[in-house]
C-alpha cells in the first residue's frame, strides 16, 4: 500500500468528514462557539499516514477548540535535531515535501466572486509582479504547500477609495453542466462565476504591454533616477540639453528592457498555447457520450474521463473508477516533487457502481471550499439529488491538475476548479531571484559612483558661486548685470545642472548589459554538448538567470550521497538469515538505455527455498505441517521483504475502453485489458482468489483447512496438507505468468521487492486493506493489512501489521536501520539466539565496510488481545490534539518492541560514472567538500574512500560524542594537537599553521581569502562527524560552533553521517554566515531541498527520487560528473568575464565624466559642455556598448581543456582575484589619468587656433572613443572575429552616425550648431594625430603595468597558458624534425598537430549523434 504521506496528513488536519471549516456556518447548520479569527488560529500538527482527527468532537468542546486554535506549531527536538533559531526559511512540517517555506509567504486564496467574475481569460491579479515560465508552476509549488492567510495592512485602510472586492461565499456550489437546461442564459448559469480552464501566464496583452511594462520598469531605482534627470532638464533655469535629447538614455534603457521582456513573454505565450490546445474527453449532453475537447474549453461542472498515464487537465472530484476497490493512484511529481503515488477514492455513496454509473445519471450538487494554494486542503460535500444525502468529501477524493493518473484503467470526475483557480496554477510563484556576490559588490561601487558624482557637482556649484563672486561690476559674456545675480542661488542651480550633464557617472545601462550578458551565458551553458546526457536526454538547466558568476566563486561544496554521488539504483547484494550469510554477485541486465544492474541468485539460498516442501513433516493426525526453525526464518525474511513497504502492484499495463476521441474500443485486447486485477475486499471466511487457476505456480488453500491453520508461535508455521505443483518451485516465470508491475516510493523498496520476487516470494496484489503473496511450498496466501507504521527520520523504522486471513494470526514485520532495530530486538539467554545476534552484527559491520546500505529485519507475533489493547491506545493517541506526535511515537515504540531478529540485508548503491574524478578535481581546485548523508558511519566512510573524497594517506579524525562535554573535550583536544603541529611546522619554516593559530577565535577571523595555503597544509586530514555529535556542535547555546568550524578549517574534506534534512540546512547556514564563504549545495531528493535553498548556489541532480530537488535548485544537472565542467570551465569563464566587464564599464563611464568636468575650468563652472548633446547621451549607450558584450560573453582567459586538466586555476575565481575591493579605485585612478591626457592633449593641440567649441568637443569624443577601444583591446584575453568586430564596428558606427547626423542636424534648430562639424574635423590631420597620440599616452601605463605583471608576477592562469603554448610548440617542432622534410609532407605533418586538439571534440560529437564538419 503506498504511503499516504502529505496528502493524508494534511487532509486529516482539516475539519472532519462533512464539517465546514472552523468559524464558517453553512446553511442549515449552527455551531455553538464563536468563530476563531485567522490571526489567532495556529497550526495544529496534522494527523499523518492516513489517520484523521476526530470531526464533531472538536466542535462539541469550545474551550478545547479555542485552546487548540491558539496553539502554534511546536516540534520537539529529538535525536539528530537542533534548535533552529535564526533558520527562518527552514521549517519542519508534516509532509515529506514541506521542509522549507519562504519567509513571509502567504496563502493566495481566491477571495471573491468579483475576482472570479473579472474579464474572462484574464491573468491573475498578481501576475503583474511575477515572471513566469510554464515550468515555474512546477518549481515553486514546493514552497507554497503550507501558508497562512495574509492580514490587512495599514496601507489597505489608508487607500479607502479603492474598490473593495466582494468576498466569495465560503462554500462554492457546483452544478453538473449536463443538468442545466440548454436554453439557460450564460450570465444565469449556476457555474458562470467560476473561471474556465483557459490558462494565460503571460504578463502582457497587445493593449496592456506598454502601460504594464512602463509601470514595472519605473519600480526600479535606476529608471526613476533617469526620469528625475529628464524632469530636471525641463526646468528652464537648470536645463542643459534639449528636452527630447535628455530622454534618449531613458528611452534606450527602457526600450532594451522592454524588448527583452517581450521576448520572454512570447515564450510564455507559446507555452500557454501548447497547454491550452491539449485534449481531453468531456461528456457531451447532446451526443450522450464523451467527446474530445481542448483543455481551454473545459468548464467547472464538466464531467471528464481520464485514462491511465493521462495528464489531469483540471482539479476533479472523483466520481467513478474502474478499480473494484474504487481506488486510483495519482503521481504528483509535477506538483510537489514526490515520487510516491497518492491514493484517491471515489466519493462515498458512489462506490461499487461499476456497471450502473453513467455520467448522464449524476445529478448531485457539489459544495466545496474556495480555491487555495494548499495542495492538500479540500473539504466540502456532495448532495445526492435522489436521497438528498449530504456526503462529505476531502482531499482524498480530489485529483489535481498536472498530476498523472497511475495504476488505474480509467476514472471519471467532475471539474471543481479550473484554469487559474486550480491548485497548480495558484502555486505558480514564477522564477526566483538571487543577488550574487559580484552584484552586491557592484552595487557598492555604484554607491561610490554616486558619491563621486555628488562631489563633482558640489565642486562645480562651489566653483560657479566663487567665480561669479569674483566680479565687481559686470560678468563677461553675461547678458545681464552683476547686480541681478545671486551667487549662492546660481551655485545651487548650477549644482542641478551638473547632475544633468554628469549623469553618465551612474552606470544605469550597466544593469541592462549585465542582464543580457548573463542571459547569453545561460544560453551557452544550456547548449554545451559536454553537459548533455544522452542516456536521459537531458541538458543542464539554468533556473536562476542571475548568479552564473557565482559558479566560479564556490568555496564550500555540500553534497548529498545517495542519488547524488551514487546512481540510486539499488542492487540486492547480501542477506544474512539466522546468522548465515548469503552473498550475491552483481550483473548488468539489458543493453543501452534499458541496461540496469541486477544480481545472481545465491545457489545455497535458492536450494533452501526449493526444498521447503521436503522439510515439511507431519506432526499429528490432524495433518498440520511444520517448518523447521531455519526454514521459518527464511520464509518470514522474504515475506517481510515483499510486504513491509509501500509498493503499488499492477499485473499488466492499464488500458481504457475509450479511445482518445471518446469512442468505445471493441477489440478483444481492449476488453481484456480493462479488467481490474485488484483483489476485492473480502471477509476472512469467504475470500476467494479468483485468478488462482490462471497461475500455474500457485495453489488454492482448501477451505476445510482454513480453521486448522495457525502460524506457529515464534518458530513454527502450520500449513495446509495440499502441496503445490512442482512448477511452484521454479524461479523462472512460465510464459503464462504475467509479471506484476511494481511502482515503489524509493529504489530501496523496489530492490527488496524485486529480490523477493526473484526468489519466488511474489507480491501479486495489494489494496488498502489486503495483499496477496505467492510463497514457495504454500502457493497464494492472503493477508489483511491491519496497520502500517510509516518510516520517519526519528524512528528510522517501518512496520506493517498483517493478519493471515485463513488463520487470523497477527504478525508485525519491521525493517529499519541497525542503530534503531538492534535495541528493540529481544535478547534471551538462549545460546542460539545470542549466536544469531552476534553473527548478524558482524555481517552488518562487514557490509558497511563494503559500502552497502544495510537494513535489519525482525518480526513479532501478537495475540488478538495484545493487538486490541495496542489498537485502543493507538486510536486514543491519534485523537489527541496536544502532544499527539509524541504519543504516536510512544505507540509505535510499544508495538516495535521485543522483536525477533530475522536477519539483515545489504543493498549496493553504485557510484555514478566520473564521481571520483570530479570530487578529486574539485578538491584540487581548493573547494572544501562536505558530504552530508543519512547512512551509517562505516558505509559512508567506505563510499568516501571509493569516491576519492578521502585518500589512503589521509588522517581521518572521527568524532562520536554522546554528550556536550564529550564533544567539547574532543574538539578541544584535536584543536590543541593541530595547533601544536602548526607551531612546529612554523618553526621549521612552514609558517602557515602558526599564523592561522594566532588568529583570534572569532567568526570574522575564521575565513581568510588566502585559503590555498590552508588547503595545502590540511590536505592530509579529513573529519568524520555523526548526527548526534552535530546536534551539540550546531546548537548556538553550546558555544561549540566556532571551535567546530576552526577544526574543519584544518581539513580538506568533511563527512557528516546520520544527518537529518534540517541539520543539512543548518550546517550550510552556519558555514555561510560564520565563515562568510560562498556555498554550493548539491542534492537529488526531497530531503535535500532545505540545504539547496539555504546555500548561495543550489544544484539539483535529476535522480531517482523525483524532481523536487531540481525544482528547488538554481541549476539542474543530469549527472554529478557534469559539476566539474560547470564549475571549473563555465564558472571560471563567467566570473572572469563579468568581473572584467564591470570594471571596464565603470572605467569608461568615469573617464567620460572626468573629461567633461575638466572643461568647467575653462568656462567658469557654468555647466556648459563642449560635447554635442547627442554624443553625450549616446556615447556610453551605443558607441562603446559592443566591447562589453564581446568581453562578457565570448572572452576566454584560458581554454576549456586547460581548465579541466588543471583544477587549481579555479582559485582565480574562488579567491576573487579579478574583482578585488581595491580594483574599483585602481580603475578610477586610471580613468582620472586618462581623462587628463585626453582633455589636455586636445586643449594643447588646438591652442591658439580658430576651432570652435563643437569641433573641439567632437575631437575630444573621438579621442575618448579611440582610447576606450584601445583599453578594451588590452583587457581582451582571447581575440576572435567577434572581439575584432566589436572594436571595428564601434569605431565605424560612430563615424558613420556622426557624418549623417552632422549632415542633417541643420534641420533641427536646437541641434544646428553641430552642422557639418565632423566633416570639417575629418578634413584636417589634427584630429587623427591627436587621437592617436592621446590614446597611446593614455593607455601606455596600463599596457606597461600589464606587461610587467605578466612577466614578473604572472597569474596561475598565465603560467599554465604559457606552459601549454611552449609544450605545443616543442611538440610541433619535434614532429617537424622527425618527419622527412619535403613539400609533400610538410603540410600534412603540421595539419596533424593542428587538428589533434579538436579530435576529442569530434569524437564526442559523433557519439552524441551530432554531425561533424571535416
Helical fraction equals: 40-55%
**End-to-end CA span:** 58 Å
Mean pLDDT across all amino acids? 75
Strand line-up in the sheet with most strands: 16-39-38-37-17-33-36-35-34
Helical/strand content category: alpha+beta
Radius of gyration: 37 Å
Largest sheet: 9 strands, mixed
Q: How many strand segments?
A: 39
Shape: globular
The low-confidence parts are 1-152, 157-166, 617-623, 666-736, 989-1019, 1381-1414
Q: How many H/I helical runs?
A: 46
In brief, what are we looking at here?
By secondary structure, this protein is an alpha+beta fold. A hairpin with a 3-residue loop joins strand 26 (762-766) and strand 27.
How are the SSEs ordered, and which strands pair?
Layout: H1 5-13, H2 56-60, H3 62-70, E1 106-107, H4 113-116, H5 136-139, E2 148-149, H6 154-158, E3 172-174, H7 209-217, H8 221-233, H9 243-246, H10 248-276, E4 279-284, E5 289-294, E6 303-307, E7 315-321, E8 327-331, H11 333-336, E9 342-345, E10 365-368, E11 379-383, E12 390-394, E13 398-399, E14 404-406, E15 410-417, H12 423-426, H13 437-469, H14 487-501, H15 508-526, E16 541-542, E17 556-559, E18 566-577, E19 580-583, E20 586-589, E21 596-599, H16 603-610, H17 612-615, E22 617-618, E23 625-626, H18 629-643, E24 648-650, H19 668-673, E25 741-743, H20 747-758, E26 762-766, E27 770-775, E28 779-789, E29 797-804, E30 810-816, H21 818-821, H22 831-849, E31 853-862, H23 864-879, H24 884-895, E32 900-911, H25 915-924, E33 928-932, H26 937-946, E34 955-959, H27 964-987, H28 992-997, H29 1012-1017, E35 1021-1026, H30 1027-1034, H31 1041-1048, E36 1053-1057, H32 1061-1075, E37 1079-1083, H33 1089-1094, E38 1097-1101, H34 1108-1112, E39 1115-1117, H35 1122-1158, H36 1173-1183, H37 1186-1194, H38 1200-1205, H39 1211-1214, H40 1223-1245, H41 1253-1275, ...
